Amino acid sequence: xxxxxxxxxxxxxxxxxxxxxxxxxxxxxxxxxxxxxxxxxxxxxxxxxxxxxxxxxxxxxxxxxxxxxxxxxxxxxxxxxxxxxxxxxxxxxxxxxxxxxxxxxxxxxxxxxxxxxxxxxxxxxxxxxxxxxxxxxxxxxxxxxxxxxxxxxxxxxxxxxxxxxxxxxxxxxxxxxxxxxxxxxxxxxxxxxxxxxxxxxxxxxxxxxxxxxxxxxxxxxxxxxxxxxxxxxxxxxxxxxxxxxxxxxxxxxxxxxxxxxxxxxxxxxxxxxxxxxxxxxxxxxxxxxxxxxxxxxxxxxxxxxxxxxxxxxxxxxxxxxxxxxxxxxxxxxxxxxxxxxxxxxxxxxxxxxxx
Length: 355
Known about the structure:
The chain has two domains: 10-212, Alpha-Beta Barrel (TIM Barrel), CATH 3.20.20.10; 231-354, Beta Barrel (Lyase, Ornithine Decarboxylase, Chain A, domain 1). It is built from eleven helices and 19 strands. Strands 2-3-4-5-6-8-9-10 form an eight-stranded parallel beta barrel, surrounded by five helices. Strands 11-14-17-16-15-18 form a six-stranded antiparallel beta barrel. α4 (60-68) runs parallel beside α5 (86-93). It is of the alpha/beta class and 355 residues long. β3 (54-57), α4 (60-68) and β4 (75-77) form a beta-alpha-beta unit.
């Protein structure tokens, strides 16, 4: 069999949830498991994150799958509903939709659910993506409170720069100031805010990327945060080539040797989820030896430098990211984020679940 494999640790995810819980204080924890649990497998993540107080997903289909898997805890629909016909399903499955635009309120008024819903009412505090304008808060809250189809309200916002120097105050303080008179619980903290800004905790926190062992911060490693990598993408060297000075390797010959050198060809490419735009010097781990990629990533293969890995040859194991090589480091070198790398794991890559 082709040697590529993703090893996914349920123990690491459970550990990372405990780290999240240690920062959450009295707040309840929604484990964000959208996008197939960031590429880690929904059913696998549910077992690993069973101690969460609830789960957050994107679509009604994901939420329905959770209920079919036996989840009885709260399920939050992060993008809300996409049509009035979904209201009845939310009531049937006891889902908590995020309401973020006027049509949601119109639908609830026109087609009230058989059983009133717990809703999260989202306000735009500056990210300018989803949410009612903060300036409209009084009218919006009053209208939602008047709807017979609403059983309870949690106020909500989302931070644009919790992982950057700008921080959260420029959004958090206006949000809290405007919402202070409503006497309602609130939710604002993603992974970065949960780890760095305890004033954002509210009633519910919503950690995502940290549960899978990646850092939300460019300048702080996952290890420094006490997180463990949940996914290790690994393969093997399947061929060794020797380049002479001036010779190139791969499509476009983007890398040319300055001296005689050995090059390992690894069974992993962009069709497996490795980023095609990762150019020369993206880190890899060759049998525990830190090395680098060379040239352009192919659909099924990539090349690595064996100059400092004297004993490497065909069959030598290679870690593309995970244990011993943080996914954040690979993402930074490739000019992308750990979110993209983890979510892009291809269906053709075999997965082994480990403790």
